[in-house]
Amino acid sequence: MSGLRVVVVNGSPSRPSKTMGLVDVILDALNRMTAIVPSRVDVYRLGPGFAGAIEREDVSPEVEEALRRVEEADLLIAATPVFRGSYPGMFKHFFDLVEQYALAGKPVLLVATGGGDHHALVLEHALRPLFGFFQALTLPVAIFASGGDFDGTVLLNPRVYARVQIALEDAIRYLKVPTY
After folding, report:
1. Distance CA 100, CA 87 (A)
2. CATH code of the domain in which 50 resides
3. Is residue 40 part of a domain?
């Protein structure tokens, strides 16, 4: 199977979640634009071989495989709910284990969900600096949806759908991949 290797790092502890509901919309739209091979890393499902690791050498083989998928992705989607004004600690812990220069120049789409519109600041004040440390290429248009934009985990707000489209059109230009 060939196509753009898109890896989602999901920082939500909930199953199902609004965060992954939004990511599903993004992946569906991207798949309509170009061939993709999506995969997902659920940081809260990585287990003790992840949570107890202090150094990369301490991780389980499954966690090592997840880290390598992220480091080798063509496009990384960093998706997280807002928790107390920032991303959850398990989300950050995952990136603490990523090799420092493995994401240099890698396109990263920032995605977040939160209780209200004021949580959208997490994109610029927490996520963008995190990936700046890695010298990743955070795409200019990030995507945020608040709790009121959903019915359960189903995204309803047409403005968020429009933002997804704008963000993905930008991503396609940066990735220089063939489109349908």
Report:
1. 19
2. 3.40.50.360
3. yes
DSSP 51-70: HT-SSGGGS-HHHHHHHHHH
Element (H, E) at 77: strand 75-81
Measured between alpha carbons, how far is 169 from 99 in angstroms, rounded to an integer?
29
Q: Among candidates 79, 109, 98, 110, which has minimal Cα distance to 174?
A: 109
- Give the domain range for residue 27: 4-175
Condensed to tens digits (0 to 9), the pLDDT of residues 58-106 reads 999 999 999 999 999 999 999 999 988 899 999 999 999 999 999 999 9
What band does 176 get if pLDDT is binned at 50, 70 and 90?
Answer: confident
16 prior amide bond cis, ω within 30: yes
Does residue 180 belong to any structural domain of this protein?
no
**Domain annotation covers residue 115:** yes
Tokens for 33? Answer: 């634009």
Q: Which residues contact 20 (CB under 8 A, 6 or more apart)?
A: 10, 12, 79, 153
Would 90 be classed as within a structural domain? Answer: yes
Q: Name, in order, each residue with C-beta under 8 angstroms of 83's C-beta and a sequence gap of 6 or more.
A: none
